Amino acid sequence: MRLGLSRLFTCCAPMAMVAVLCSAPAIAQTNDGNRPLSAIDWLSDTLDAPRPTVPPAASDIAENALPEDVSVLPLDAPDPDVAGLLPSSVTGLPHGLWGASTASDIARRIRTISTRPDLLPASRRLLNTLVLAELDPPVLSDRDGRLFLARIDALLSQGLLDEADALMALAGLSTPEIFRRSFDTKLLLGTEDEACARLTHTPGLSPTLQARIFCLARSGDWDAAALTLETGEALGLIRENQGALLARFLDPELFEGEPPLPAPEHPTPLTFRLMEAIGEPLPTTSLPLAFAQSDLRASSGWKARATAAERLARVGALSPNRWLGIWSEHLPAASGGIWDRIDVLQDFEKTLLAKDVDGLNRTLPPVWDAMRASGLQPVFAELFATPLSTLPLTGEASEIAFEVALLSPDYERIALKWSPALTKEQRLLHGIAVGDLPTQRQSEAQARAIAQGFRGTGIPVRLSSLVSEKRLGEAILRAIELLEGGAAGDLDELSDAIQFFRAIGLEATARRAALELLLLERRG
After folding, report:
1. At what angle do helices 507-519 and 395-406 cross, to 10 degrees?
2. pLDDT-derived band at 4, boundaries 50, 70, 90
3. Residue in 496, 464, 467 with CA at minimum distance from that of residue 479
4. CB contact set of 187 (below 8 Å; sequence gap of 6+)
5. Dihedral angle at the C-alpha atoms of 246, 249, 251, 254, nearest 10 degrees?
6. Residue 284 lies in a domain
7. Smallest Cα–Cα separation from 47: which of 205, 182, 193, 225?
8. Are residues 483 and 123 in contact, defined by beta-carbon separation less than 8 angstroms?
């Protein structure tokens, strides 16, 4: 049995431990104020930032408020910006896509787009292709890793933890900021032992006391973890609320019968895992999307897993097959909310597997309503568009099957083979899918703007300077911003975005974006 914390501290506090802790920077109570700002505001305090040991010379004092170029990589360190998971043979993008853009400009646009709460699926797919692509660094790269961090933050903000983890492993944990993100990613994926091993064995890393205590305990050295906690608290290096949480983590028997700790307002992944370890898990529904990944573990309850699967699949952070698998694990245990959506999905799938056309005419409308309510239409479409297109559905079910087909990756193939008669609205959708728009004027303003984009040729004026300056990748990011502006109601931006995508060969992006705008009930 482990010793109680207070007893352990009073009986054995070697001076070596005190010396180590006294020499550590008192960063634990500064709320990380010296670290660079990030689009991800929930990172754990994993590493200490070094304190300046000498006052700055007069010549070092800034004379204005302009930021200076700062590089944190050794001259011989690899540039993380070259790392990518998708080769050019997969993406079709040229290695020199970033061209003459600055790393700062690209990073800023990636951060701006990735933090939008309601991206069109077409925008999200294209953004993530750029983020994961194997590309040369921009010519004007300062090699400080800011573009790579923006790419990682874009993945983390969307809950794409596996992709972020793989990309960081490929690039190497060459800076403290990359390591912090890697550590938290592994905490949320449940592979924290790997993170602790790297923290312990990587030269030059100075873990904060919280991270050190956590990793000591994970390695089984509970006594050293307890001693570190007591010494850190005595020296004022650990905040009171964090100390209380760590104490319960190290010796829960001392706190039996005590009331639960107050739930933290903005937990970091480390706090999240500590709360889970002491038997006071935090619900993830109100936390950033990345935290939902932890609910996918088999140890979580089915409702938590189903809810997390819904959140993650909606933004493409979970495969449609895995979403369906989780929703099919059991029969709904109650009614209302997500249980009703699971119920109608399971009814639909039974009739589809039986190829029961009459049953599908009955079950497809309610399940499509449920998918629309939860924003899962593209996920549903990817799974079921092809089998639905082969069945002689009628009435509302036939109309829904057409929409499902056009929201799927096989939109063009299914549209070319579609045999039922089309309404005027469906003819426009069909024309977009096959790349042959009808010539008649559209009655709706959004449809007219889309048609204008498909009929336009060349690079739109507002994007021509970026292209002529060899900043094609940045122009693509700008076009995504225009597409999102068009989705919010700026129809000139919508036309320009579609025209641009077609002009540079991103025909599928243009078509799928147009179909999504017309079929998904989103902003406007």
Report:
1. 150
2. very low
3. 496
4. 44, 195, 269, 270, 272, 273
5. 80
6. no
7. 205
8. yes
Residue among 309, 325, 329 at smallest CA distance from 317: 309
Residues 235 and 354 in one domain: no
Q: Dig out the tokens for 388 from the structure.
A: 């639905």
Tokens (6 digits) for 297: 């573990």
Distances in Å between the alpha carbon of 395 and those of 162, 361, 371? 42, 8, 19
Sequence letter at residue 346:
Q
3-state secondary structure (DSSP) of residue 131: helix
Residue 422, domain member (yes or no): yes
Q: How far is CA 519 from CA 171, 216, 408, 429, 523, in A?
A: 39, 53, 12, 9, 12
* Total number of domains in the chain: 2
User: What type of residue sits at position 30?
Assistant: T
What is residue 133's three-state secondary structure? strand
Helices and strands, number each (H, E), in the chain: 26, 0
Domain span holding position 259: 80-278
- pTM of this structure: 0.87
> Is 8 inside any structural domain?
no
| pLDDT for residue 19 is more than 50 | no
Extract the tokens encoding 208: 């904060």
